[in-house]
Amino acid sequence: xxxxxxxxxxxxSEMAMVGHESVGKTALFRNLTGDKTVRESNIxxxxxxxxxxxxxGGKIELMDTPGIQAEGDSVAMGLALEQMDGLHTLIxxxxxxxxxxxxxxxxxxxxxxxxxxxxxxxxxxxYSPTKSDKEQIRHLLQVPVVxxxxxxxxxxxxxxxxxxxxxxxxxxxxSSILQFLPxxxxxxxxxxxxxxxxxxGPIFAWxxxxxxxxxxxxxxxxxSDWIQPISDTYLIGPIxxxxxxxxxxxxxxxxxxxxxxxxxxxxFVWAFPVVVMVGIASAVMEETGIQxxxxxxxxxxxxxIGLTGxxxxxxxxxxxxxxxxxxxxxxxxxxxxxxxxxxISIGSACSYQIGATLSIFGAAGHPFLFIPYIVLLFLVGxxxxxxxNKSNAGLLKRVxxxxxxxxxxxxxxxxxxxxxxxxxxxxxxxxxxxxxxVATLLQLLHVLDVxxxxxxxxxxxxQLPAEAGTGILFSVIRKDGMLLFxxxxxxxxxxxxVFQVFILVYFASTFSSCMVTLYTMGREFGWGETRGLFLKQxxxxxxxxxxxxxxxxxxx
Length: 556
Prior knowledge:
This protein is of the alpha/beta class. 60% of the residues lie in helices and 7% in strands. The protein contains 24 helices and eight strands. It has helices at 2-10, 25-33, 75-84, 99-110, 131-141, 155-166, 175-178, 200-242, 248-255, 262-288, 290-303, 312-317, 322-328, 337-347, 351-363, 370-388, 410-444, 447-454, 456-461, 468-477, 487-494, 498-510, 515-525, 527-555; strands at residues 13-19, 39-42, 49-54, 60-64, 89-95, 116-122, 145-147, 169-170. The longest helix has 43 residues, at 200-242. The model is unreliable at 1-11 and 40-48 (pLDDT under 50).
């Protein structure tokens, strides 16, 4: 027994950092632990990650939990709060200028009474209480409190923080006592002046965020378009030759049209650059704090379609990869998460979809069609989201403060990008490989050929050739499946007029999410909810395509 007690005394103390978003928690965790011993683990019963690492010195095992949103109740937030119930020592990270409000919120939601607590007040460089106010705060809280700048910690400050964490004391403060804490009398921060200009402010915010995401997606597309034929010649081609003598069914599963190696590599070549480039853009916006200012500016207009400003980030990420976007929607409120996923599914054109549509419009001799296509896609997605999903966005009130704008740090940028890349490799990429197997099985069983017959009546109404049905169904497996329209040296497209090509591409794009996205949504929301999302999207797609066709045929 004595040996066990001695062993336990040598083990690092387990502590968890908890706080609102944009308080500097990630930077603080990074500075206290370094970047070499990080371990990621899922919150029990979920795929939400918590990061754990030993504080330099090894006496404390520190867990960084998802940021808590003061304006909503996201999946990540709910699971993080649930995780806190099993921990006895919590490190509360709050903004120095909003110490009272944030401590009151955390005290209410974390049930702190009886837990060991230390408080770390960040943004000391922006606001620091007077010496007497600090003493009064410590006296009222009766727990260690340290003021700091999370981005710049010298050795002396780190030692002071670690001492405070080790000296964490039992929390016995009531919400009424918290109201006696000295408060910051400074005026509340507002969004950037440029964003506050009537009409022009939101327009500029839209332009900025679309540029921040559109340029990376375009750069990634150009890179993938360049590297794919090279990899086909020097990698996939030789590998395919190795399996030539294998049985037909095995050949199909490994290096066939939807093989684990062939389609798997193709998925990686087209998705990974987008994830990296969009990840860099997101990291820049988050590290500098400008993302919160943009979302705050666009929040009123997005609430009109049932979303909030926070939901915009996953929607834009969807223009790179829908799977990563659905996973990112965990940060959305539970009131709007389904609406956000619905918008991603129909209104966000992933990199595969963008590449395929550009190719088809180019082959048809009308590449300019991509511009009205992408605008129509987003507008129909907004209408679809508003009509099909109950709008609870109005119930969410923004009470969290806007962050300060800060200079970019390379350490912080690398930290965030690495996490996005690891999420793609460990969560999204395995799903791609599973879909490769499923798609090959459907191909071998000729399931898609049978289902294509069911689309024939609808295609007849749209005055489109019945052979286009296979390409539409292949686009359900993966969005670039519509490239089948280009087969036969464009013989199918040659039969169509320009507006018919537009109608066909629009319908193939919107009829359904790809199988990878559907599978991801099934895991995230449940298969019943996902089935409902699929049927609603299919209905919207059919109705909007018929309306589009009716209008175009009438005009042209």
